[in-house]
Amino acid sequence: MDEKVRFVFRMRRIVRHTGGMAFVDRLDPVLDRFRISTRLFHTGPLCGVTTFGAQPGRGFLHVLRAGEMEVAHQVDGRLDRRRITEPSLLLYPRPLEHAFHNAPTEESDFACATLDFGGGVTHPLVRTLPPVLVVPLAEVPGLAPALDLLFAEIDDVRCGRRLLADRLFEVVLIQLFRWVLDHAPSLGLSAGLLTGLADERLAPALSALHRDPGRPWTLASMAREAGLSRSAFAARFREVVGQPPADYLTAWRVTLGQERLRGGASVQQTARELGYATPAAFSRAFTQRLGRSPRAWLALGAAEADAGAAVPA
């Protein structure tokens, strides 16, 4: 069986076909392992100037469905002011203080959710998204029904209102992520996870790495997932994702390892689940990436948590 036939059979195992087009779910493997919690934070018009502070591990998703406003924030020490004149989504994936300037009118239709990313700054999407993303509602297909349900729950004082609103904000966020993947080339994103997932040849390989990090991956096996030769795959991966495939795999495994260790898994169990032959091999990879052994890293996190708990509010 030649290489082309093997690739066809492999693709049939990992994708489903819709209308003749191969489909690879690029988001599920990431979001299944690194959750994002959304919580309704504010509804209704904004009066005067409203400031949203930067908090570690927290982002914001704002929905302006009616009205106009100006938003201001600082990126890399430079003040950025934008006038929002049409219904839009505004995503702040990382802690970034920003302020909205609104006329005190009841005509504005506005809702906001806080975003708590599993893993904080180590969340793979947090690391690759721009500091702020402003997207007109009209550009996101299928968004209108979700927003209709969201604002209906916001306006309807009934049992479970907040919980339903929180879940609907998650739907809106996932639809926004879909839009980002579909428009990644035009957004000028830096090389990274999102540009890799947006690449039709690399997406199957990345999704396979995300789904099955403990598999004994080699450059050849990764390249087969993409249907490319080893040299072509390595060159394309480095250009689009910004690092060699082996480095990306190590970074992904270490990031997953951090989540497992935070959750109480042992170093031995974590090493086995992530495909390392011995706990020592995992510890070496972990230390090379983070500058501390797993146990030292856990101890530092516990010490920082204790110090934070001891500080009066």
Automatic annotation (TrEMBL):
InterPro entries: AraC_lig, Homeodomain-like_sf, HTH_AraC, HTH_AraC-typ_CS. Gene3D superfamilies: Homeodomain-like. Pfam families: Cupin_6, HTH_18. Keywords: DNA-binding, Transcription, Transcription regulation. One of its GO terms (molecular function) is DNA-binding transcription factor activity. Residues 203-300 form the HTH araC/xylS-type domain. PANTHER family: HTH-TYPE TRANSCRIPTIONAL REGULATOR NIMR, TRANSCRIPTIONAL REGULATOR-RELATED. This is AraC family transcriptional regulator. The lineage of its organism: Bacteria, Bacillati, Actinomycetota, Actinomycetes, Micrococcales.
